[in-house]
Design goal:
heterodimer; A: alpha+beta; Ubiquitin-like (UB roll); DNA polymerase, domain 1; five-stranded mixed β-sheet; 6 helices; 5 strands; elongated; B: alpha+beta; Aldehyde Oxidoreductase, domain 4; seven-stranded mixed β-sheet; six-stranded mixed β-sheet; 20 helices; about 20% strand; globular; disordered N terminus
Chain lengths: ~160, ~750
C-alpha cells in the first residue's frame, strides 16, 4: 500500500510516496524526484551508472532499498554537486578534458571520483584506476576519464 | 508523483536547443497534428536549413548523435559555410517529420555524407543570401562581405534575418554537384576543437536521455522474455501478479508477453513475479562447436571481392612455400551501458514513437508494417540514448512500447533490463576466415587466397527484424541484415595473384546486426594477422613488408605507415624478436597493423606494445600508437575522442569479450558473465591525426577499430613466437598456444 518516506536529497528534505519499501533508491530519485544524474545501467550493482553519495560515500543506488535509508542520511546526486553554470571542480575537470562520449556512465565516474578525492587528495595513477575499477564505460572514454580525474586532483 | 513534460520540453530536453521558429512550428503544433509546411526531401534546401528573423539558424539533420559529438561538428560545418556564429545554430535531429532521410546513422558516414549534404545546403543558402543582399544593398555580389550573419557593402549592412527571416529558400540541391564551398584556407570554425555542446549538461545531470523522458499520462511497461529464443508461450498465470500495486495489464500477443503498471517499480515487480509456462526450444548450436557449425552452414552465395591472376596455379607452382591459417572472431554484443528504452503513444489511429533509433525514417516503416498502419500515421522522434555502436535494442524497445501502448490505449515507456539488453539485442555474427598464400624462394608473395564465412545480407533494406514483432507473430520482412560485412575482405596489397571470397551463409545462430566496424574489423583482423605471418615467413620487417606491397601511388597510405614508424620509434627488424621463445616470465613485443577503410577512405596505422605473462597467459597492452588520416578534420578533439574510444572498446572485444550461450538462450546476461575492459587494463594511447584540409572529410567513427585485434595478435607473436588466431585472446587460449607452439 502507498506509504510516505522522508529522505534528504541534495540538501533538501523530501517526501516520496511509494508502494514498496524495498524499492531501490534509484527509482525514487529518478521516478519520484525527477533526477537524471543517477542512471539505470544494470540494476545489479555491476556498472556504477547509478552511483550516488550517501553521507559522502559512493553507493550503488540500484542496490539500496529505501527501507535501509533514514531521513537523516544525506543523499547527494550528480545534480547536487554542481550545475552547468557552476560545476563542481570534478565536473569542471570532466568538461575541460571533454571526458565523455555518450556520457551515460559519467555520473558514476564523477560520483566515484568526488568520493575518492575526499579521502585521498593526491591519488596515484594506480589509486585512481583502482577506485574506478568497478565503473564500466562502453564507449572507451577511459583515457580521458583518467586525465579528467588527474586534472581534478591537480596532478595532471 | 510522475514528471510531466510537454513535447516542447521533450525537444529541448534532447539537447537540441529548439527555439521557436517562424518557419517551423516546433513541438506543440505537432502534438495537435498540424502538418508542418516543411520539406524533408534531400533535394530541397529547406529540408536542411531555416533562418529566422533574428538570424538564428535551425539545422535539420537526419543523421543523429549517438554519443559521438557529431552534432557539434555538424554545427561547425554549417557555421563555417554560412558565416554565422557557432552559438547561433540550433540543430534538430532524427525526426521523421522534420529532418531529411539521410539514411541510417552508421558506417562512419555522418560527417562524410550527412555533413557534406549540410555543407552543400549551407553553401547554397549563402550564395542565395548574397544574391539577395546584392539587390537590396545595390552592390555587386563580389564586393559583399559576410561576417556573423551580417552582409555588408561599404557602410551598408543587412542581416540574414532581414534577408530571409522565416521565409523558405525554395531552392533545389544537387548533392552530386554541390555548390562551391569555402576554400579550406579560409576556415575559422572547421578544424577547431570546439568543445562539445552536450558535455556540460551530461556531467551535471541535466541532459535528458530517452531514459529520462516522461510524457503525460504515461505508464511503465516491461517485456517478459521467453527462457529460450524460439520457445512458445503455453500459459500465463495472471494470479501470480495480482497483488502488484498499480498493475494495469498483463499483455499477451502470441509469444509476446508484457506487463504495464502505473510505476516503473511496479512494472519491474510484475515482470519478475509473472508466472508463465513456455515450451522447450534448443535450436542453437553447441557453443564448443560453433565454428564447425559455421563451416557446415549452407553457402547461398560466393561473393568474389578480389580476383587478380590465377591463385590456383600460383599456389601449386613448383618451389613455392605455402602457408595456410584459419582465424575466428567471437559473437559480440553491443553492450550499451544504458539498456534500450522507448516510449510510444497510439492515439486516434496515429502512433508516436520516441526512441534512440539510429534510423527513425526506417523505424517508421517497420512500426507501420508491424501494426498494419500507413507509414503516414507513424511519427518517430529521436532522443539520444546510451551509446549503441550500431543497431542495438533501441528499435526493438520501440516496437515493444508500441505493442504495449496499443494494448492499453495509453502512452507506455519500456525500459529494457540488463538481461534484456545482453540477451536480446542483435549480435555481431561469428566470423570464420581461411587464408592461404604462397611465397617464392626470393621471399615474394605470389598468391593470396581467402574465404570469409559470413552471413548473407537479404534484400537491400537493412531492416533488422523487430523482436516484438517476431514474438507477437506480426508481419515484418524477415531480413538477415548483418551490415556490409564483406567490406575489407579484399586487400590493399598488390600481389600477382589474389582471390578473396565471401562465402555468404544462409543463416547465423543469432539475429545479426552491425556492431562498430562490422566485418571490416573481423576481415582486417584476419588479413593483417596473415600478412604478418607472411612477413615473418619472409623474414622481413612487418612495416617494410607492407610498404613493399602497397600501391606506390597510394601516397596517403604510405604516409600513414611512414609516420607511424617515427611516432612509435619503430625498430626495423623481422618478427618474432630474438629470444622470443625463451624463458622469462614476461615476454614483451610489438605488433603493427594497417587499414585503408573499405579500400577507398580513412587510413589507419597502429603499433601495439604488449606484455605476455607466460604463467597466467594474460596479455597486458601497455601502449597503443596510431596514425590516422580521415581527410579534412572538422573537430580534431572530436576525432581524437572517437579514435581513443575505438581503441579501448576494441581492446576489450579482442581480449575479453565472447557471447556465451547454451542450446536455448544467451547465458551471458550481465556484466559478470560478459565482462568488458576496466580501468586497471587501460593502456597509454598515443595518436597522431594527419589532417588533410584540402581533401573531403572521411569517417572516423569506425576505421581505427579495424586494426586493433590484428595489432595485438601480431605483438603477441613478436613477444612469444606464438600466433593467436581466435578472438577473444583469453589467458586460457594464450596458455594453450604457448604450450603448443613455443
Amino acid at each position: 500500500m502507498a506509504q510516505r518516506k522522508s529522505l534528504n536529497v541534495n540538501g533538501k528534505s523530501v517526501r516520496v510516496t511509494i508502494d514498496d519499501p524495498e524499492m531501490p533508491l534509484l527509482y525514487a530519485l529518478r521516478d519520484n524526484l525527477a533526477l537524471r544524474g543517477p542512471r539505470f545501467g544494470c540494476g545489479l550493482g555491476q556498472c556504477g551508472a547509478c552511483t550516488v553519495h550517501v553521507d559522502g560515500k559512493a553507493m550503488r543506488s540500484c542496490q539500496l532499498p529505501l527501507s535501509r535509508l533514514t531521513s537523516s542520511q544525506r543523499i547527494v546526486t550528480l545534480e547536487g554537486l554542481g550545475s552547468p553554470q557552476q560545476p563542481h571542480p570534478v565536473q569542471k575537470a570532466f568538461i575541460d578534458t571533454q571526458a565523455a562520449q555518450c556520457g551515460y556512465c559519467i555520473n558514476g565516474m564523477i560520483m566515484e571520483t568526488v568520493a575518492l578525492l575526499a579521502t585521498n587528495r593526491k591519488p596515484s595513477d594506480a589509486d585512481i584506476r583502482k577506485a574506478l575499477a568497478n565503473n564500466l564505460c562502453r564507449c572507451g572514454t577511459h583515457v580521458r576519464i583518467l586525465a579528467a580525474v588527474k586534472r581534478a586532483a591537480g596532478i595532471a | 508523483m510522475n514528471i510531466n513534460v510537454s513535447r516542447r520540453d521533450l525537444l529541448k530536453g534532447s539537447g537540441a536547443l529548439v527555439v521557436s521558429f517562424s518557419l517551423v512550428p516546433a513541438g506543440d503544433a505537432l502534438a495537435q497534428g498540424a502538418a508542418p509546411a516543411k520539406p524533408v526531401a534531400l533535394t530541397e534546401l529547406d529540408s536542411f536549413l531555416a533562418i529566422d528573423a533574428r538570424g538564428q539558424v535551425m539545422v535539420y539533420s537526419g543523421k543523429v548523435d549517438l554519443g559521438t559529438g557529431i552534432t557539434t561538428a555538424l554545427r561547425q560545418i554549417v557555421a563555417e559555410e554560412l558565416d554565422v556564429p557557432f552559438s547561433r545554430i540550433a540543430l534538430l535531429q532524427g525526426d521523421s517529420r522534420l529532418t531529411p532521410d539521410q539514411g541510417k546513422t552508421w558506417g562512419s558516414l555522418t560527417i562524410q555524407v550527412g555533413g557534406m549534404q549540410l555543407r552543400n545546403a549551407a553553401a547554397t543558402a549563402r550564395g542565395a543570401l548574397l544574391e539577395e543582399a546584392a539587390k537590396r544593398l545595390n552592390a555587386k555580389k563580389e564586393d559583399l562581405k559576410v561576417a556573423d550573419g551580417v552582409v555588408s557593402a561599404g557602410n551598408k549592412r543587412i542581416t540574414y534575418g532581414q534577408l530571409i527571416g522565416g521565409k523558405s529558400f525554395a531552392l533545389k540541391l544537387d548533392h552530386a554537384k554541390p555548390a562551391q564551398p569555402k576554400d579550406p584556407k579560409d576556415h575559422t570554425v572547421v578544424g577547431k576543437s570546439i568543445p562539445r555542446i552536450d558535455i556540460p549538461s551530461k556531467v551535471t545531470g541535466r541532459f535528458a536521455y530517452i531514459q529520462d523522458i516522461r510524457v503525460p499520462g504515461m505508464l511503465h511497461g516491461r517485456v517478459v522474455r521467453p527462457p529460450a529464443i524460439g520457445a512458445t508461450l503455453q500459459s500465463v498465470d495472471e494470479s501470480s501478479v495480482k497483488g502488484v500495486p498499480g498493475l494495469v495489464k498483463v499483455v499477451r500477443q502470441g509469444n509476446f508477453l508484457g506487463v504495464v503498471a502505473q510505476s516503473e517499480w511496479g512494472a519491474i515487480t510484475a515482470a519478475q513475479k509473472l508466472k508463465a509456462t513456455w515450451s522447450a526450444w534448443q535450436g542453437l548450436p553447441e557453443q564448443a562447436k560453433l565454428y564447425e557449425h559455421v563451416r557446415a552452414t549452407k553457402v547461398v552465395q560466393d561473393q568474389v571481392t578480389g580476383n587478380v591472376g590465377d591463385t590456383t596455379a600460383a599456389l601449386s607452382a613448383d618451389g613455392v612455400r605455402k602457408l595456410a591459417a584459419t582465424y575466428d572472431f567471437a559473437i559480440h554484443t553491443h553492450g550499451s551501458m544504458g539498456p534500450s528504452c522507448a516510449i510510444a503513444e497510439l492515439k486516434d489511429g496515429k502512433l508516436t514513437s520516441w526512441s534512440a533509433s539510429q534510423a527513425t525514417h526506417d523505424l517508421r516503416k517497420q512500426l507501420a508494417e508491424m501494426l498494419g498502419m500507413s507509414a503516414d500515421d507513424v511519427y518517430c522522434v529521436y532522443l539520444e540514448g546510451s551509446g549503441c555502436y550500431g543497431r542495438n535494442g533501441h528499435e526493438d524497445a520501440a516496437a515493444d512500447a508500441a505493442l504495449l501502448a496499443k494494448a492499453v490505449g495509453r502512452p507506455v515507456r519500456v525500459q529494457w533490463s540488463r538481461a534484456d539488453e545482453h540477451g536480446w539485442d542483435p549480435k555481431g555474427p561469428p566470423t570464420l576466415i581461411d587464408l592461404r598464400a604462397a611465397i617464392d624462394t626470393g621471399g615474394n608473395v605470389t598468391a593470396w587466397e581467402s574465404d570469409f564465412f559470413i552471413p548473407q545480407q537479404t534484400a537491400g533494406s537493412f531492416m533488422v527484424p523487430l523482436t516484438g514483432a517476431t514474438l507477437a507473430g506480426l508481419p515484418q520482412k524477415g531480413d538477415i541484415a548483418p551490415g556490409n560485412v564483406f567490406q575489407n575482405s579484399a586487400i590493399p596489397y598488390k600481389f600477382a595473384n589474389v582471390k578473396t571470397v565471401c562465402r555468404r551463409l544462409e543463416s547465423t545462430p543469432f539475429r545479426p546486426s552491425w556492431i562498430r566496424t562490422p566485418g571490416r574489423m573481423q576481415n582486417t583482423y584476419a588479413n593483417e594477422c596473415f600478412m604478418d605471418e607472411l612477413a615473418a615467413a619472409a623474414k622481413v620487417d612487418p612495416i617494410e613488408f607492407r610498404l613493399k606491397y602497397l600501391d606506390p601511388a597510394d601516397r596517403r597510405g604510405i604516409e600513414v605507415l611512414t609516420r607511424l614508424k617515427a611516432l612509435a620509434k619503430w625498430e626495423t627488424r623481422p618478427s618474432p624478436q630474438a629470444g622470443s621463445g625463451a624463458g622469462g616470465n614476461v615476454a614483451r613485443g610489438r605488433g603493427v597493423s594497417y587499414v585503408k577503410y573499405e579500400l577507398v577512405r580513412t587510413y589507419v596505422g597502429i603499433v601495439a606494445d604488449v606484455e605476455v605473462d607466460r604463467a597466467s597467459g594474460a596479455i597486458r597492452v601497455t601502449r597503443i600508437t596510431m596514425t590516422h588520416d580521415c581527410g579534412q578534420i572538422i573537430n580534431p578533439d572530436g576525432v581524437r575522442n572517437q579514435v581513443e574510444g575505438n581503441i579501448i572498446q576494441t581492446l576489450s572485444r579482442t581480449l575479453i569479450e565472447e557471447l556465451k550461450f547454451d542450446r536455448s538462450m544467451v547465458t551471458s546476461l550481465d556484466w559478470a558473465s560478459y565482462p568488458i575492459l576496466t580501468f586497471p587494463d587501460v593502456p597509454e594511447v598515443v595518436i597522431e591525426l594527419i589532417n588533410q584540409p584540402n581533401t573531403p572529410p572521411w569517417g572516423a567513427g569506425e576505421p581505427s577499430a579495424a586494426v586493433v585485434p590484428s595489432a595485438i595478435s601480431n605483438a603477441v607473436y613478436d613477444a612469444t613466437g606464438v600466433r593467436l588466431r581466435s578472438i577473444p585472446f583469453t589467458p586460457d587460449k594464450v596458455k594453450a598456444a604457448l604450450r603448443g607452439g613455443a
